Amino acid sequence: MRRSSFASMECPIAGALERVGEWWSLLIMRDALDGFTRFDEFEANLGIAPNMLTRRLRALSDDGLLERVQYSTKPARYEYIVTEKGRDLRPVIVALYLWGIKNTADGARNVVLVDQVTGSEIVPEFVDHHSGRPLSSMRAEFVAGPDASEEMRRRLNPDSRRTRRDRHKAQRSTT
């Protein structure tokens, strides 16, 4: 059965996917964060059908990631300006960029990330705010937070997780 909404899931990742998990949404936000603001720019850049673009722009505006601002009355035309909430998505876009370079680009450097002021290439690294350690070197895991339901606490129970890890280790060693 196909899931139509992640809204009832108790997970910040599911909540984020509810808003931007559709692939066009992330590509529209990528372009908006790069300074594109108009319907025709998004349409030309992405090769997206106008009806799909209309739906995605409406959803991104309704979710507060873009602000729809009229710039012409005859005919009525709008720009889509990135909001603070939309700017908060930039690290996610950069993380997808990094993952794509490492895992899909076959070494091609078709796109690079640069500082707008200096023009210097940026080599981003995600680090833990408290320790300064790169996230890629940490053994991070999700645990139930203070507001988690009993179901979420059961699912993320560290003891159950260790049992699953042990089971996977045993399977790998026998193959």
UniProtKB/TrEMBL annotation:
Residue span(s) of domain HTH hxlR-type: 11-108
What are this entry's molecular-function GO terms? DNA binding
Extract the ranges annotated as region (Disordered).
142-175
**Which keywords does this chain's UniProt record carry?**
DNA-binding, Plasmid, Transcription, Transcription regulation
Residue ranges with Basic and acidic residues bias: 150-161
Q: Which domain of life is it from?
A: Bacteria
Which InterPro entries does this chain map to? Answer: HTH_HxlR, WH-like_DNA-bd_sf, WH_DNA-bd_sf
Q: Where is the composition biased (Basic residues)?
A: 162-175
Mention any Pfam family matching this sequence. Answer: HxlR
* Listed name of the protein: Helix-turn-helix domain-containing protein
The protein's organism comes out as: Rhodococcus opacus
